[in-house]
Amino acid sequence: MAGGGTAPSMKMSDVFLLVGMSILVGGIIMHTWTASTALDEASPTLESGASMLKEDTLTFELSPGKNASITIIVLSEDGATVAQESWSPGEGEDFEYTFTAKEGGFYTYTVTYESGEGEAFVDVNRNTMIDFIAYPIGAACLAFGVYKRTLESDEVLDAELEG
Predict the structure, then answer these.
(1) Is residue 80 within 8 Å of residue 24, measured between CB atoms?
(2) Considering the domain boundaries, does residue 28 fall inside one?
(3) Model's pTM, two decimal places?
(4) Which domain holds residue 41?
(5) Counted domains in the chain
(6) What order of strands is seen across the sheet that includes strand 118-125?
(7) In a domain, 94, yes or no
């Protein structure tokens, strides 16, 4: 330690408990931390991308304001346009568009409010549920940490000093 003191080594059970809980909390944050993006005349475009497998879907949930004109373009990793849709919905009329990947790869999408303003929320739905792999890994680390904790003994050893 920096102050010249000593600290006991960390027990292996504590390491597994800490890692397991961190993975579980990280998985929960990864799945619950979502927010829609406000688009207006100052920033009319939302651009991003997603690595998708075959049959994965991108769901675009759009909440336009009045006089909105919306365009969604999805490009494959080689730059080819695989989907392009345009709408002019009425005020307060929420709209949802779903794109399904025909083959795996990285897809880039652009949501543009050509006129008007509104909000856009994009969700990637995995066909293989690979996003949920963090939960069994975290649970396994946590269970192994609890198991190791029951095996470790916290007995205090008394020693006699002869002198």
Answers:
(1) no
(2) no
(3) 0.71
(4) 35-150
(5) 1
(6) 37-39, 118-125, 57-64, 95-100
(7) yes
